[in-house]
Amino acid sequence: MKESKKKQYLILIFILGLILFNYPVLGMYNVPERWLGIPVLFIMVFFSWMLLIVLTFFVTKKGSE
User: Fold this and answer.
1) What is the pTM of this model?
2) Which regions span the lipid bilayer (predicted)?
3) Would you say residue 45 lies in a domain?
4) Is residue 64 in some structural domain?
5) Helices 40-64 + 3-20 axis angle, to 10
6) For residue 5, is it within any domain?
7) Are 47 and 20 in contact, with CB atoms under 8 Å apart?
8) What are the percentages of helix, strand and coil residues in the chain, rounded to 5?
């Protein structure tokens, strides 16, 4: 993958992270509900964080091949 394309993908992942961890989105999940005994907000935060890590891994992995 070209370096400029790789940088563009990383910038998009960064912007996605900003959107996911901004107040309006976090506020949607700040409810008193629980899934399997875990607050919905915690599940959303951990899965969003995992998504960003996986996306970053695949973008940087493709760039090294």
Assistant:
1) 0.86
2) 9-29, 35-59
3) yes
4) no
5) 180
6) no
7) no
8) 75, 5, 15
Q: Are 63 and 1 in contact (CB under 8 A)?
A: yes
Q: Quote the CA–CA distance of 41 and 32 in Å, as a whole number.
A: 9
What is the rounded distance in angstroms from the CA atom of residue 46 to the CA atom of residue 35? 13
State phi, psi for 50 to the nearest 5 degrees: -65, -40
Residue-range definition of the domain harbouring residue 29: 11-59
pLDDT tens for 1-56 read 788 999 999 999 999 999 999 999 999 999 999 999 999 999 999 999 999 999 99
Q: Is residue 18 part of a domain?
A: yes
What CA–CA distance (Å, rounded) separates 57 from 55? 5
Sign of CA dihedral 31, 35, 39, 44: negative
Closest Cα to residue 49, out of 1, 13, 24, 4? 13
